[in-house]
DNA sequence: ACAATTCCTTTTAACTTTGTAGGATATTAC
DNA sequence: GTAATATCCTACAAAGTTAAAAGGAATTGT
């Protein structure tokens, strides 16, 4: 049970963006340098975040990425869900889960549902602002 | 972020053991049949559970496995930890984690620590008894 | 024109998961 | 004492996932 490095990188990237002045576009190259993540890998990580509407991009010189919402309105859950799809502990809980014949009598399902809720409750109440040092708050 | 099928099977197996009369040894073949898990795979799953002291075994005819403690005293956390080692969301939180140079300034670490705690708090307070239907309680 | 940048697709290497297989060892029943 | 029933132990293999690199096309500002 581990979150992928993509998840970890995405969160780090978003925290860095949140701690920079908003309204300006930050090129991935800058983040690549300061976070020590390869530019090419970052490009892949950023794609689902932009698709999910968490980031706006601008191409070309002076281009880059910026948050589409204030840091206080973007949660870790938003980010992880953008990268992972659903954040669920087992496949049975997927929205499109094939129906398992033993589901009606399954005694472990309630346990996993509870864990799912504990995890999602937590990640949905931590915002990017919570992860930025007060000095950098906007 | 998913728990492995080994984790899921281990939990199912333990719940089944908990819902049978204690003090008797249940052969894996019986569990293999009722849970529809291959005997050979079950053998591998059971090994770490026995090593962790959650199960006692007896070899030979009339042998099998039994819980070493009442179902109310075995938690899902005990089981998952036996199978997985530590239950942690990212490698940085491992007991033997190599020290990361960016750790002192890492702004995401606190998030992962909080998630780790939310997960472990939950799994440590669900017992096998909680997952057994009242009728089968001992 | 040129440099900087995002965007899009493909490929590869390493790793992890999910099993299967074969046999050795212990215990009970007959 | 032999056969049947189990656990135990180790190795192997197939499939899937992750982490990353590579190459180039499209867009924008100077």
Output the structural class of chain A.
mainly alpha
Largest sheet of chain A: 2 strands, antiparallel
Number of strands of chain A: 2
CATH class of chain A: Mainly Alpha
CATH architecture of chain A: Orthogonal Bundle
What do the pLDDT scores of chain A average to?
Answer: 95
Spatial separation of the terminal alpha carbons of chain A? 35 Å
CATH topology type of chain A: Arc Repressor Mutant, subunit A
Number of helices of chain A: 5
CATH superfamily of chain A: Winged helix-like DNA-binding domain superfamily/Winged helix DNA-binding domain
Order of helices and strands of chain A: HHHEEHH
Helix content of chain A: 40-55%
Oligomer: homodimer
Q: What's the domain count of chain A?
A: 1
* Widest β-sheet, arrangement of strands of chain A: 1-2
Q: Regions of chain A with pLDDT < 50 over 5+ consecutive residues?
A: none
Could you tell me which chain pair has the largest interface and how many residues each side has?
A-B, 37 and 37 residues
Rg calc of chain A = 17 Å
Q: Roughly what fraction of the amino acids of chain A lie in strands? A: 5-15%
Shape of chain A: elongated
């Amino acid at each position: 049970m581990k979150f992928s490095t993509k998840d970890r990188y995405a969160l780090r990237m978003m925290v860095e963006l949140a701690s920079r002045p908003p309204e300006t576009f930050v090129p991935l190259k800058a983040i690549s340098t300061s976070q020590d993540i390869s530019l090419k890998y970052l490009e892949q990580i950023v794609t689902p975040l932009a698709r999910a509407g968490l980031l706006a991009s601008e191409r070309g010189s002076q281009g880059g990425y910026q948050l589409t919402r204030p840091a206080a309105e973007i949660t870790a859950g938003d980010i992880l869900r953008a990268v992972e799809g659903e954040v669920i502990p087992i496949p049975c809980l997927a929205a499109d889960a094939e129906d398992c014949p033993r589901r009606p009598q399954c005694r472990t399902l309630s346990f996993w549902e509870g864990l799912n809720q504990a995890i999602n409750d937590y990640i949905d109440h931590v915002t990017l602002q919570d992860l930025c040092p007060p000095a950098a708050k906007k």
